[in-house]
Design a protein that fits this description.
The protein is an alpha/beta fold and 403 residues long. It contains 18 helices and eight strands. It has helices at residues 38-51, 55-58, 70-74, 98-110, 148-154, 170-178, 201-213, 220-228, 231-244, 255-279, 285-301, 311-319, 323-327, 331-334, 342-350, 353-367, 373-379, 384-401; strands at 5-13, 18-26, 63-68, 86-90, 113-116, 134-138, 160-164, 182-184. An eight-stranded mixed beta barrel has the order 1-2-3-4-5-6-7-8. The two termini are 38 Å apart. The model is unreliable at 27-36 (pLDDT under 50).
């Protein structure tokens, strides 16, 4: 089966805000660039996600970082995009030629942001610094301590020094001290488990609310009871009902009635946004967004025959998939505080069962990290185009929530 993949990875500023996402073409599930002409790869990425899909949606309104070779630049591929939507990532060049510099100046003057990747500290790159938005440094290959002279060179041009392949949060502080102002890697997926930490009452309450909201069958009484224990939750619910009921005369006499008036779908969305907003203190909202997209994509995939038996459990499982990162606690400890169905608990803690397989497939598909994606596609007869469209749709939905 011929399949294509798009790996998406967030790029953060010093305040842990996502400034954009790097999009890379993959012709296999392995998280590496395929043995394929770079020009062809960029062409396929553009066709698949800009003409057939929606790069802006996939990046949720943030910048899309796209690899372009000199050949792509000469053929004016970047002109397919608005200057505010993309960053041109320079790949495939070992040394800037006079023609290359002229091309960069052309795009710079048109207002495009340009990033130098695979920076090797050589002086011959200095000539293009005036045209750059950022410079990427692979911190696995280059010792950050060697970068002090580079920081001084970049300062007059206000160029961001970006660290690639940051794997742990412990690296961030030392990299910031060197002069890095942006970061890319899987560090934000890694939980910082703090020994002896216990959940604050409000967080326990939020987890309980999420659990009740996604229980089957749906129980308005139980949800109203949890909401009634917090004034802010109660006020937020009533405000939401008021917004929904504009133009109609509705007299709300109880929280249960308010919850019932919204209906299951709107109430689930309300609870999702509210709970995540109260759980993401001191954490990047990228984690919450990733969890929302994972849940939405899992729910969409679970509509197909292979996963129909777990369709009612898919969204909450994806939603909770990043909860240990948000709460800095082991997953097995967190689930003990929640009345979750056994398949959800098994999927979250052990990544086992049909639900666990769907969770792993979805997270791996979104981030492009695992070589098991293709096998799952074949095992469950999943359509690649369908999943890609649902990924874009989930990204649009998450962006519309404006969290």
């Amino acid at each position: 089966m011929q399949t294509t993949y798009i790996a998406r990875q967030a790029i953060f500023d010093r305040n842990a805000n996502a400034i954009g996402y790097e999009l890379l073409f993959r012709n296999s599930p392995e998280n590496k660039f395929p043995e394929l002409d770079l020009n062809v790869a960029t062409s396929k990425l553009i066709i698949q996600n800009h003409i057939h899909g929606d790069i802006t949606a996939l990046c949720m309104g943030k910048l899309a970082f796209i690899n372009f070779t000199e050949h792509c630049l000469i053929n004016k591929y970047p002109l397919l995009f608005d200057t505010k939507d993309i960053v041109i990532e320079l790949v495939g060049s070992n040394k800037p030629t006079s023609r290359f510099i002229k091309i960069l100046k052309y795009y710079f003057e048109k207002g495009y942001k340009i990033a130098l990747t695979e920076y090797d500290l050589e002086d011959h790159w200095d000539v293009i610094f005036p045209y750059l938005y950022l410079v990427k440094v692979d911190v696995e290959k280059i010792n950050a301590k060697r970068l002090s002279p580079v920081v001084k060179k970049l300062k007059p041009f206000d160029v961001k020094l970006t660290a690639e392949k940051v794997e742990t949060r412990f690296q961030l502080q030392s990299l910031a001290e060197v002069g890095f102002s942006a970061y890319q890697g899987f560090f934000y997926h890694e939980p910082e488990v703090i020994e002896g930490q216990t959940l604050a009452p409000i967080k326990t309450q939020m987890l309980h609310l999420i659990s009740e909201t996604f229980n089957v069958p749906f129980n308005f009484d139980a949800i109203a009871k949890v909401i009634s224990q917090d004034v802010n939750l109660s006020v937020s619910l009533l405000k939401l009902v008021n917004n929904v009921a504009v133009g109609t005369q509705v007299e709300i006499t109880s929280l249960k009635q308010a919850a019932a008036y919204l209906g299951e779908d709107k109430l689930k969305q309300f609870v999702t946004i509210l709970a995540l907003s109260k759980l993401t203190v001191d954490q990047t909202d990228e984690i919450a967004k990733q969890a929302l997209i994972t849940g939405k994509l899992m729910a969409a995939i679970a509509k197909v025959n292979a996963f129909k038996e777990i369709k009612d459990l898919a969204f909450i499982t994806g939603l909770l998939s990043a909860i240990e990162v948000l709460l800095s606690m082991p997953m097995d400890k967190i689930v003990q505080t929640m009345p979750l169905a056994k398949p959800i608990e098994t999927a979250l803690v052990n990544h086992e069962g049909l639900l666990g397989e769907l969770l792993d497939f979805t997270t791996n598909y979104i981030t492009g990290r695992n070589d098991k994606v293709e096998q799952t596609l074949e095992n469950f007869s999943l359509d690649q185009d369908f999943i890609h469209k649902e990924f874009v749709s989930a990204s649009k939905w998450c962006n519309a929530l404006d969290i």
